[in-house]
Amino acid sequence: MHSLSFYPEEMPRYAKSRVLVLFDIDGTLLRRAGPHHRQVLEEAVWQVAGVRATTEGIPVQGMLDGAILQCMLRQAGVAETAPAQMLAIMKKAQALYVRRCPDLREKICPGAPELLERLAAGGAVVGLVTGNLSRIGWRKMTQAGLRAHFRFGAFAEQAETRAELAGLALQEARRRAWLDTPMVATLIGDHPNDILAARANGLRSVAVGTGVVPLEELAQHRPDILVPDLRALKLEQLICAD
């Protein structure tokens, strides 16, 4: 795990809350955000490692960017990548994406802005748990006009699995003394990996059908709450213990 900051800037003081809500990005807050993310991963591998690698044939949904890069390199014939080189690839990909990310306001999933506004009004602690690298994730939120809703995030370069990322986010919220007791903590995502990550950390899981995984398949993984999109998710479901 790489020790990198959760935050792009210093965080202000906050009152304690009994509600923590963590969001995935792709398929949950945004959908069909364009090819730029995949393209910068491919270009970063070429610029840093001199290897022509592609995301073609890799089931990237639900994966962390680091795992995607490892798969790309192995698929291109690179058996092992030195940690320093992988960090350089990640750094290059993020720099490229920050420059190229388009306006994403039309890519926001239905109901996301309204739900985020309601959570803010209720004083909830709201963060990101995403397979995106940190600068890529924050850039997406900025270009979608959603950045101000998120207090912190856990990102791909900080762990090897989504469950570990969810655990890091929970630990950080507690370390910052943002949470009161009793507490209701929820992870919202569009992939079975999000459901499993929530379960591994004792979080309530909300699965939304705005990604590539059909609702029927998500239901097989028994999320605590299953909705077609965020418009169907009521605030009470996130703030009530039962």
TrEMBL record:
GO biological process, one term: DNA repair
Native organism: Paludibaculum fermentans
GO MF term list: phosphoglycolate phosphatase activity
One Pfam family hit: Hydrolase
Recorded family membership: Belongs to the HAD-like hydrolase superfamily. CbbY/CbbZ/Gph/YieH family.
E.C. code: 3.1.3.18
Protein name: phosphoglycolate phosphatase
EC top class, as a word: hydrolase
Reactions mediated catalytically: 2-phosphoglycolate + H2O = glycolate + phosphate
